[in-house]
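Repro:
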Amino acid sequence: MRRSLALALTATALAAAAFPASAGAASWSAPHAVGSAGRMSQPAVSADVRGRLAIGFVRELGRDHGAEVRQGTTRSGLSGPSIVLDRTSRNVDSVAVALPANGADLVGAWRRLRNRALRLETTAITGGRPTRTQPLTRDGAESAYSPAVVTGPGDALRLVWSRRTTEAGATVAGTAVGAPFALPAPGVGAEPEVAVDADATTVVV
């Protein structure tokens, strides 16, 4: 499993700064709380050239665990209530968020304990509401790890992840995620890093 900095906070904070190419330093905005209730952790953030902003996180409320997202803009910050992608008394973690160029406001992915393994699931947010949940790793006994979103040509998005002995990805299109395709990174703990250039050549390390 990829090591990550995941601090458990009672109120996760957001701060932003603009970094002009010619500037050696920048002033940060004052931090603002992403949420005020429960134990929040594992923040993920995405922003695009249109100024859209999405933050994903895990929230524990008593015995319940939830994958949630909030939306906003880089200029004005977050707005509207938190959107719950999933909530259960079992394990939920590793939220990833993406901002498609069209078809959905945002796409979220997360892990959920189901059938004795951590399964990767995804959904699109349109009009402030999740669409149907789409399972990506429903087969086999291997857990999924480290979901991440990679931007390709024309702002096309790919969701990539690891399992114990295989690695895979899927294209985010409209409000749906396509069928998984294999990445050439077999073996325990391969944890590939993926980049896509302007002509759709994909590099896996």
